[in-house]
Amino acid sequence: MSTPANLHITCEHCKQKATLACAGCIAVPDTAAGIVQTTWYCGASCQRAGWNNHKEACKAIQARKSLFRAGEVVQHAFYMYREKVFDKYVLSVERDGEHLKTNIQYVLNEDTFFVPFPDKVCVDHADKQALLASWACADAVAYMHGLVKSLLQGLYKEISDVLVSTKNHRRRFINAGITAPNNNDNTKYGHEVIQVTLKNGEKYVLDIAGAQYGQFTTVIPWDVYVQSHVKDVIHCHDFGSTRERITSPIYCNGSTHIQLKKYFNKLLSASMDAKIKEWQDSNITLPAMLKLSEQKLFEKQSEFFSFLDGELDKAKLSIQGTLSGRARVPATEALLEQWLRKGTFRRES
């Protein structure tokens, strides 16, 4: 419970002067999608007496709080993951109004799948987030699927992968180094997001890669998001369908090197999911973590991100060594061959 700043707030149960707030209602994100008013009491006895009248609203508020906190965790994890698998040589970034003109080349070296993120070309942290998210919305929805599923367990009534076309872009990437149709402008693509409906019917978007358009808020009420950022809702699919699609071999047309990079992400995201489960088994479940007090949540999040960062580094080194031929593992090589054979393409000779 917390002491109110407004000394005229009254107890929800006895209507006397209130001094303490319901712990479940405090620090809830302000949103027009549902109840936003914190419930106050004069003390613990009135809180217990008034619980039957308050519990449904309180549970809805706590679910919203968990969703917003989950969005922060997923967003941080995505930027962490994306920075480790960044695959573009960014030669320059030039700002022109709402546009970020980038001169890039994709990494095609046979022994190098990814390159260090070019921090020095970014003017500020927002530019870095936008560049990390650029052309990566499907990756965000696919490779963060396991983390989203773990965080939101028991929280939602419905959840879907959704493809939208966007509008009102506050940022736009124009690639001077790519000449293929549409590849030089990220706003010409559809944008992948996740739609979450809580058990009380409140509906939200989880937009993990929105920074590329200047949208830096991860969780937004769905109606507000559609009105402000969506031109058309193109289609809705089952939660996880994006992951299945982009980790399938048919999705990965192109050179063997491009195929291997896709396979690398398939293995790395699977490793991340396994490590997330390992952390929960030995520590605290992610849904339980989201319900902690602000200070304890911060501490546990720090532990979680530190663990995940280290495990991703180890998995990245292991997988890249395997796929580049420096440390061939027969079982993994067999999986790769099987994966390649399932598609419409073949390994280059």
Name the features.
349 residues, alpha+beta, 5-stranded antiparallel beta sheet, 11 helices, 10 strands, disordered C terminus
Tell me the series of helices and strands, N- to C-terminal.
Answer: EEHHEEHHHEEEEEHEHHHHH
Low-confidence stretches: 326-333, 342-349
**Going across the major beta sheet, what is the strand order?**
9-8-7-5-10
- How much is the radius of gyration in Å? 23 Å
Principal-axis shape equals: globular
InterPro entries: Znf_MYND
Pfam families: zf-MYND
Keywords: Metal-binding, Zinc, Zinc-finger
Protein name: MYND-type domain-containing protein
General description of the model:
With 349 residues, the chain is of the alpha+beta class. It contains eleven helices and ten strands. The chain has helices spanning 44-49, 51-84, 125-133, 137-143, 145-151, 222-229, 241-246, 256-282, 286-289, 294-324, 330-342, and strands spanning 20-21, 40-41, 88-96, 99-106, 156-166, 172-175, 191-198, 203-206, 219-221, 230-238. The strands form three sheets. It has a five-stranded antiparallel sheet. A three-stranded mixed sheet has the order 3-4-6, with no helix packed on it. A two-stranded antiparallel sheet has the order 1-2. It is globular and about 70 Å long. Mean pLDDT is 82; it is low at 326-333 and 342-349.
